[in-house]
Structure formats: C-alpha cells, structure tokens
Write a structure and sequence with these properties.
Order of helices and strands: EHEEHEHEHEHHEEHHEH
Number of domains: 2
Distance between the termini: 40 Å
Shape: globular
Number of strands: 9
CATH superfamily of the largest domain: P-loop containing nucleotide triphosphate hydrolases
Structural class: alpha/beta
CATH class of the largest domain: Alpha Beta
CATH architecture of the largest domain: 3-Layer(aba) Sandwich
Helix content: 25-40%
C-alpha cells in the first residue's frame, strides 16, 4: 500500500516578493490577491493542493514589516505563527534583495530545524551574472537552505519546487477533505477581491484605511447576491472612495463582480456601500471582528 504524505508549507518574505503569485501558481486558483502595493496580504491564507498520495497545505502570510499600528502587529502575528506548524519553510527573496527586514525572523530561519527552501524569485528580470552572485550570497547567509532560482510569474522552476516540497513532507493522512481548496469561507474571497480593486485604483493612505465586510451572501441556482460594506476611517476617505457622482465606487464594483463571477462560476449581483468606522486599525475589538487577533 502506497503511503500518504501531508504537511504545512509556510511561505514568508519581505513585501512584494511574489509570495501570493507563487501560492496561486501552486494551487492553480487565485486565492491570494496580488497588487504592486506593499501589505496587500493581511491575513494568513491557506491553499490546499491534493494528489492521490499527498496533501500540501500552503500558507501565504503577510510580508514582513516593522509594525506601526495594531493592524500591522496582528499581521506580524500571522507570520510568527507560520514558524510554529511548518513542515517545510519557504523563504522567498528576489533579485536585488540582500536582507530580511526583521532580524529576529531571519535568525529563526537560519536556525530552523524544519527544512528550508530559499526561493530566489523574479529571475526573469536578471542576467546570469546577477543570478550567480545572488545564489552565492544567499548560500552564505542561509547555509541550512536549499536554493531554487524561480520566476513565479512565468512559472519557471515552480513544478520542480513543488516536487521537492512533496518529497520533504512527512507521512500523514490528509488534514482537510480532499476536495477542499482553502480554509477561508466564501465571504473572505468577496472581501479580498473588493479590497484588491481598491488597492489598484486608489492612492496614498486610502487602501490601507479600508476593510471590507460582506454582510449578505445569498446563493441561488443561477446567481449569487452579495451586499458588501467598505469601511473607512474618515469622512474625507468616504468621499474619495465614492468619487464624483459615484464613478469611483462603480468601477470597483464592476471589476470586482467580473472577478467574482470567474471565481464562483456563476452570475453575481454585488451591492457596495461605504461606512465610516473611526480608527478601526487601532481598535482591538474591531480587529477581532475582521478576523485579526484570533
């Protein structure tokens, strides 16, 4: 009888290093939102990949930053938890990067008893000389790691990394049902899709002052009806989100609806509203309500 392998593979690194792109490439679905802005990922998101004799549970965590307020403290708690249950640890860096922003996290990686795969991402933006220089640099900095040069966006070496992950997994029955793709509920992906559009279309502080709450989610045979509230911290931000005669929020709604129809495979009716929720990013009670500080 063929044995079964299963385990947690936790992905960490600085912001904008491509963790979410890699996660989505492994899973084959868009579970983590991707934008060019830092701090796009706020939660720890699990993506589950099943084979006949394995189950890989991938964990995409927020990019490592020095926290400036309560929300960011909570985001870093998700990163800390990634060390606790990892069977394989993926440390992602990119060409041009020479250090992790938090020394304590870096020490945890270099002293880890868990197998570490160091993925040097975005090699499609480099040349052979740069690549060899960075492989040598990281081999010295993280001697306990296996190094793979990859392009998560182009799919280069992604299959090879995944095969190595499966080899490293411990023997174990599956942790989740074999048809399950993630640990997050449907409303979470509605919230994240709307937040992605806000990150893409608004500047400065606006995307970071926003949280989404999907208050209604009714699924019928041929349509899903959703009602989501965009929370902001100040009245001025509310006006910017809505835009002139509602043009800005309408664009967010149209783009989010199209993505959600692809994700759920059926027609979507999405209503968006904006509410002021003062200083929610520094309010422990509010953060808990939105799924932080668990």
């Amino acid at each position: 009888m063929v044995s079964h392998k299963a385990g947690f593979v936790n992905i960490i690194g600085n912001p904008n290093v491509g963790k979410s792109t890699l996660m989505n490439a492994f899973v084959g679905e868009k579970l983590s939102i991707i934008t060019s802005k830092a701090q796009t990922t706020r939660h720890r998101i699990l993506g589950i990949v099943n084979g006949d004799n394995f189950q890989v549970i991938l964990s995409d965590t927020p990019g490592i930053i020095k926290p400036a307020y309560e929300l960011q403290e909570s985001m870093m708690d998700f990163v800390k938890s990634a060390f606790d249950d990892a069977d394989v640890l993926i440390y992602m860096v990119e060409i041009g990067e020479k250090e992790l922003k938090d020394e304590a996290f870096f020490n945890k990686i270099t002293n880890s008893k868990t197998p570490v795969l160091l993925l040097l991402n975005k090699i499609d933006k480099s040349n052979q000389e740069q690549l060899e220089e960075h492989v040598a640099l990281w081999s010295e900095k993280v001697p306990n790691a296996e190094i793979f040069a990859i392009s998560a966006l182009e799919g280069f070496n992604v299959k090879e990394v995944f095969s190595r992950i499966v080899e490293l997994l411990p023997e174990s029955p599956p942790f989740y049902p074999k048809d399950q793709l993630t640990d997050k509920p449907e409303r979470f992906f509605v919230n994240e899709t709307i937040r992605e559009k806000i990150l893409m279309h608004y500047k400065k502080e606006i995307p970071y002052a926003v949280e989404i709450d999907t208050e209604e989610f009714f699924e019928e045979d041929d349509i899903i009806r959703m009602r989501s509230v965009i929370m902001v911290e100040r009245e001025t931000q509310k006006g910017i989100i809505i835009g002139h005669k509602g043009s800005a929020i309408k664009r967010v709604g149209i783009e989010a609806r199209k993505d959600l129809e692809k994700f759920f495979g059926k027609q979507v009716h999405l209503e968006l509203y904006v509410k002021v929720n003062k200083n929610w990013r520094s309010d422990q009670r509010q953060l808990k309500r939105f799924g932080y500080n668990q």
